[in-house]
Prior knowledge:
The strands form 2 sheets. A 7-stranded mixed β-sheet has the order 2-3-1-4-7-6-5. Strands 10-9-8-11-12-14-13 form a 7-stranded mixed β-sheet, covered by helices on one side. Helix 2 crosses helix 7 (233-245) and helix 3 runs parallel beside helix 4. By secondary structure, the protein is of the alpha/beta class. The longest helix has 20 residues, at 107-126. 30% of the residues lie in helices and 23% in strands.
Amino acid sequence: MEELTFAAPCLFGLEKMLGEEIDALGYKRTETLDGRVLFRAPLTELPRILLSLRFAERVLIVLGDFRADTFDALFEGTKALPWEDFIGETDRFPVKGHSVKSKLFSVPDCQKIVKKAVVDRLASKYGVSYFEETDILCQIEFFLLRDRAFLMLDATGVPLHKRGYRPESVAAPLRETLAAALASLARPREDVLFWDPMCGSGTIAIEAAMLMTHRAPGLGRSFAAEDLPLLSVKVWEAAREKAESEIVTTSFECYASDIDPECVRIAGESAKRAGVSAQVKVFQRDALTVAKDGRRGTIVCNPPYGERLMTPAAVEELYRKMGVHFKELDPWQIYILTSHEGFEKLYGRRADKVRKLYNGMIPCYFYQYFKRNDR
Length: 375
């Protein structure tokens, strides 16, 4: 096969970062929509894409897109696509999807139409009228946006934010993809200590270390596309070997600390599984006792929001204390993610920059302080 179109869904707010990541990998970005980026690349690049993307939730192979404001249009458009190039006669091909701002808003009805269209197409190609669907899973996904239908095949399986290094997690864990974005936005550097003093599972620190060592985020896991007869085992093995060879040594140092000893245990084990325990030092400490010790540093943290951890009143008191104590860390840069819209007032200082991001479906703000307090 020649070049294909791929769709990479992401958390809202990460589209620009994901697009730039795709550009840096050398692929041709074709379109950016809310919550996803489309791009072109050869099929042989699929293993590298899946291994490398830090900010994407999935990678989907786009078989086609077309206008579908009626069920007939959805059926005919779907049936016209080359499903036989990807789905074998005995493969399983369930359908799921989403509809946003489209006339065809009933997802169950759309699922039935897409399924029937694919069955009709495959029946004509394979000369059969019944499919047992007992072998390889070929997950079909559709996405309807403003009456435009995208028909896709999932290459990912388990979402990409599940890197494989965190089988255990704490309450209210941060997605690895969002943690990678926070780490990247904080611009980690070899000569500056990177510290998450409320580390939970250690995800922000681990993702920062993976970024600085050029460790591909997908090295510790497998993908649905490996079961599909699209590429040989040797192609996948070569992509993994290439990713392993690109890991670099670095003097970058990262602290992951938490007041909860169970969090410290989990974070330490996760860092080992991620292969970054040499860069990430994990220990127990109250975030309100962090000290500079004569070093340059950057704080990046995801404190409780008062929704799943702590009460709203306790969280507000924590933010006030953070504002008082973190002022003593000047001129360190401080980056804080929270859903609390009154954070700046509680913290006692306006951020130099605020970026809206989503922690799952929770709208959050990434407050960035990178200028001196006494300016």
